[in-house]
Amino acid sequence: MKPYADDPVRALLQITADLLALVWVYLWVRAALSLREIILTLNRPGELMTGTGEGFTEHMDSAAEQARKVPLAGETLAVPFARMSETGESLTAAGDSLQESVASLALTLPLLTAAIPLLLLVATWLPARARWVRQAASVRRLRTLTPEARSRLLALRALTSVSPARLAGVHEDPAGAWHSDDRRVVDALASLELRRLGLRAP
Residue 68: enclosing H or E segment and its boundaries? Predict the structure, then answer.
């Protein structure tokens, strides 16, 4: 696999693009992690609510137990404490619910924050980079062919990939010249294809 072009300018542009892609990934991952930390700070109120509710429930249950020990009126005296214990349980449930909501947000929002920019990178930079690497590899595989066959294949690729204006600069009928195996035109077309990719002849 050939990751970069032979042409220094083209190689520099490719390296710069790769570094920018890495910086892009790093910045968005850091942003997602920072957002997660910020969201997790919202978990503290939920923890306080849960702890307060559990403590309140424990104290009210204890008070109800003590009230039940009062002769004759024990059950009646225990009722208010039992009801207040239910209030503590509701507070605990609300705290648990808040913590679950924060945990869900701490997962979903950072994931979206990182995923959308990374998908944008995958949809733009990565296909172009992979296409160039694939094309450069296919050119390198032509080394096993004779120079004439190599030039004809490169020229054929040029006919399908180089802009019509540049093709017309080589010959008024580049496809016809290739078909008739005009060596001057074929070599010029092959050079166009190599320049397009920033490669030297294999």
Answer: helix 43-68
Q: Would the CA dihedral through 21, 23, 26, 29 be positive or negative?
A: negative
27 three-state secondary structure? helix
Torsion angles phi and psi, residue 67, rounded to 5: -65, -35
Q: What are the tens digits of pLDDT across the range 75-98? A: 776 777 777 777 778 888 888 888
Residue 195 maps to a domain: yes
79: closest CA among 61, 52, 57? 61
Residue 199 domain boundaries: 145-202
Amino acid (one-letter) located at 25: V
| Distance, C-alpha 50 to centroid of its chain | 36
The one-letter amino acid at 141: R
Residues 114, 62 share a domain: yes
CA distance 7 to 28: 32
Sequence-ordered list of residues with C-beta below 8 angstroms from that of 144, at least 6 positions apart, any chain: none
In single-letter form, the type of residue at position 193 comes to: E
Q: What is the pTM of this model?
A: 0.73
Distance of alpha carbon 19 from alpha carbon 17, whole angstroms: 5
Taking residues 163-167, what's their average pLDDT? Answer: 89
d(CA 127, CA 46): 45
Mean pLDDT, the chain, as a whole number?
88
CB atoms under 10 Å from CB of 8, counted, come to 10
Two tokens, residue 13? 């542009």
